[in-house]
Fold this protein.
Amino acid sequence: MPTTTYVPLGTVTLTASASEIEFSSIPSYSSLVLVLSSKSTSGSYDQGLQLNGDTGSNYNNTILYGDGSTGGSTTINGTTQFYLDYYGSVTNTFSTSTIVQIEAADSTTHRKIMHSRSNRDANGLDFIGGEWTDSGNAVTSITYFLISGTLDSGTTASLYGID
Amino acid sequence: MAETFVKIGHQVLTADSPTVVFSGIPTDGTYTDLYLVSQVRTARTGQPWDQIDILPNGSSSNLTGGKMYSASNGSPTSNTTIGNYVTSDDATLGWAGTLTVYIPNYASANKKVMSLESHGGTSSTHYYGMFYLAWDNSTAISSITLDSPNADIASDSTFTLYGITKGTDGTTTVTTS
């Protein structure tokens, strides 16, 4: 019998504005995929992600970006969250989609690797490879938020597990 | 336990064709996202790349896009043209490019922002690109047309469309604050 995979774990569509969305009690999967269609209450903000509630400076981010005229790369290390975008930020229209994959999510011996692909209409797109320096804990919770911003009603977040 | 990522369409071209169409895509909530995987080449000659345009519901209106791409070992470049998704030509038989398209919330009344990636070229010249395509239309996507404006999509090109359904497993908890 084939193993069922790409299992839907949780989903939410905000019915009111919120500072963050948290998925917790996540079962053991080798990879996790988070699909986001986001909107801010106002303004433009980058998206952040924290694992297991870790707010320490334990996230490294290598960023490949295109802003519509220039392509380039940069690195932002020692941050307190994963950056999910660089130009693919979130505005107060539904103009951004982001797909995040977390590898080795169930590992208690390896650092967790994050890949984020974010697209913002009329602004740019990014591919970000991130590393969470914690190697001893499996991922059991994910917190998604806008850095200094507020998520608006209608924002959707869906989590899947892959074995 | 719910299963998702369901194959809802599969096409293998047996002859060159200017377009490939997936129609009758359910918009009743059966699926929430779409994922298209293709191995594709076109009949274009004289270039190591070609373009495939994605037309939601057959429409080329209200589409905007952007890309970031690199050729072989070149530096990444970015622009805001749509289409121009690099694939390979058929100058080198046996070589095919890839094109993947992820469409979250394809039945939503909001703007649909698609995430695309492609790779093509020949054994000596590779193109790799990431793209987005935004369709500012409140209509649900019920068909997808892949259109090759320069030359036909070549036979043996393969396209598979998956429907993805979000949901819950009864264990994971989602909270907002």
Remarks:
- Chain B touches chain A through 47 residues (CB under 8 Å).
- Residues 6-164 of chain B form a domain with the Jelly Rolls fold (CATH 2.60.120).
